[in-house]
Amino acid sequence: MSHPNEIKLGGVELTEQSYEVARVWVTHEAGSSAWIDAGVLEDPKTFGYLMADVVRQAAFAYSQVYKIDQGEAAKAITAGLVEDLEKQFEEAPSAKGELN
Known about the structure:
By secondary structure, this protein is α+β, with helices and mostly antiparallel strands. The protein is about 45% helix and about 10% strand. The longest helix is centred in the middle third of the chain and has 23 residues, at about 45-65. The two termini are about 20 Å apart.
């Protein structure tokens, strides 16, 4: 199923060995929704490595779209990630499988 606001892969060819691990959507002023297929990566630490790669790719994307320094974009993304995780663990964790 496709959605008019989904990211277009633009010529990327996925193979039989390709697996979707995560899907993330944000709704204006309504939070985010994330789906994770934990069965693809057995070790949660490996998922952490994947998230580090996502941060690097996002920093590159921000540098291209907004003409900002890639390193500064990576620092800002990481700062937001750390801030939100610290806040989440100070309170009761909210991720219980429901949509935000």
